[in-house]
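Here is the promised in-class demo. Please do not try to memorize the tokens; focus on the logic of going from shape to residues.
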């Protein structure tokens, strides 16, 4: 048994002892003893995390790293990642794409803004490191846009991205109703072509998702410059037929979890980077299964969140795993191993990524997008069967009301 395996076994025994046995000091004083050692020049990321990240949020970073390697790495675990906050403008694709290519991200929920700014890189439009301590009125006069300490040209980056996006959106394949999963797959195909044309290497999350068959959703598609451009094209011409239907996304994301838990008999885990709407959309798949599909389920099996949001304001971004249990979003049996890291995700996610690629083997890609129709058909079949079985009267009344509207 390796040292890492011994540590994980010891930690697991601590949890089991506290859960099942009477309270005693030995049930709590069974973790790794803190032994300070000087950091040396030959320390790897793994050395740093395992030897120097002993407590507080450093300890939670270590917990997250070890949980991913111990549990998320299993072949039967389907992993979802939510992305909120200005991640792609800061170049966080270096971590996100690495985990995608390594098989540790099977599906994604992201803000539309992250996917819009992701496009800059595939289009080879430059963003620059800068300073937050600048005169914003002077920046406006110079037509420079700022996201804290990331700076870029308004005309040559923002407006050019809009122009390129509109050229893509008026293509024939976009002229119909679809969910964001299909929309981003089509957009990712075009961005993959842009990467190859511009010789940028792998820099776009959407392009990587297209290559790896990874579904990407946005829960609020109108709340971004992508949605703004879609709305603008609707004003331009009635011949523009693209309609983003959020209900398609609700059903298709739920189908991913239902398939993993009920049809494949596996487990699910989430890596929540930030909070907001993407966090809720990812977690609501379990209440959708339990409340709407009427299927008995316990919740997500593994939970990691990186956030700077406070819990005492009542917002979803700061809501804890304990609160998620009450909604059926998380299995109560997994509560003690859940991890919240209260820190800047642009610091934590690269550390977690480096630890994973140094300590785990790549997983086989699930390519869930390729199975989209199959998973949706299973979801619909289960919905009809359970609705008819558990609430036949309500189902009949709803169908009669809908027939009366025709």
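The designed amino acids, position by position:
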């Amino acid at each position: 048994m390796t040292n890492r395996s011994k540590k994980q076994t010891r930690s697991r025994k601590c949890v089991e002892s506290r859960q099942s046995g009477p309270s005693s000091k030995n049930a709590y004083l069974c973790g790794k003893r803190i032994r300070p050692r000087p950091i040396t020049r030959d320390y790897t990321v793994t050395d740093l995390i395992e030897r120097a990240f002993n407590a507080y949020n450093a300890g939670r970073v270590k917990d997250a790293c070890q949980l991913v390697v111990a549990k998320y790495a299993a072949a039967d675990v389907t992993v979802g990642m939510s992305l909120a906050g200005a991640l792609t403008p800061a170049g966080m694709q270096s971590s996100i794409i690495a985990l995608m290519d390594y098989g540790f991200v099977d599906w994604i929920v992201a803000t539309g803004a992250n996917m819009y700014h992701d496009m800059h890189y595939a289009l080879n439009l430059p963003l620059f490191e800068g300073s937050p301590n600048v005169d914003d009125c002077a920046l406006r006069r110079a037509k420079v846009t700022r996201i804290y300490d990331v700076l870029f040209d308004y005309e040559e980056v923002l407006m050019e991205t809009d122009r390129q996006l509109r050229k893509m959106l008026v293509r024939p394949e976009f002229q119909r109703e679809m969910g964001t999963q299909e929309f981003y797959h089509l957009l990712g195909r075009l961005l993959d072509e842009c990467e190859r044309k511009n010789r940028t290497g792998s820099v776009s999350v959407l392009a990587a998702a297209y290559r790896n068959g990874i579904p990407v959703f946005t829960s609020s598609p109108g709340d971004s410059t992508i949605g703004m451009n879609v709305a603008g094209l609707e004003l331009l011409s009635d011949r523009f037929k693209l309609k983003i239907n959020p209900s398609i996304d609700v059903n298709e994301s739920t189908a991913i979890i239902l398939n993993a838990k009920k049809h494949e008999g596996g487990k699910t885990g989430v890596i929540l980077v930030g909070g907001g709407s993407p966090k809720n959309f990812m977690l609501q798949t379990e209440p959708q299964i339990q409340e709407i599909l009427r299927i008995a389920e316990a919740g997500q099996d593994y939970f990691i969140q990186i956030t700077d949001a406070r819990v005492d304001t009542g917002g979803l971004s700061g809501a804890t795993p304990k609160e998620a249990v009450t909604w059926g979003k998380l299995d109560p049996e997994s509560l003690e191993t859940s991890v919240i890291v209260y820190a800047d995700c642009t610091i934590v996610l690269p550390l977690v990524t480096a630890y994973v690629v140094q300590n785990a083997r790549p997983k086989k890609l699930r390519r869930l997008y390729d199975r989209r129709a199959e998973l949706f058909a299973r979801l619909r079949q289960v919905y009809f069967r359970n609705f008819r079985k558990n609430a036949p009267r309500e189902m009949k009344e709803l169908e009669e009301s809908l027939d009366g509207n025709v």
